[in-house]
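Ticket #4471: structure output looks truncated?

Reporter: J.K.
Steps to reproduce: submitted the chain below (42 residues) through the standard prediction queue, then opened the result file.
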Amino acid sequence: MQLVGILIAISLLLFAGLGVAALFLAGRSSRSANEDDPDPRR
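Returned output as attached by the reporter:
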């Protein structure tokens, strides 16, 4: 039973890591997409 708890904890940590990586990559891609947009002040 202890092995199941360890596996659940490892998978939760992996999912958390994937979530952080996805947020980081999404932030980078949205910034680079915004650089391509024309300047709205013109």
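Triage note (M.O.): checked the attachment and the full token line is present. Helices lie at 2-36.
Status: closed, working as intended.
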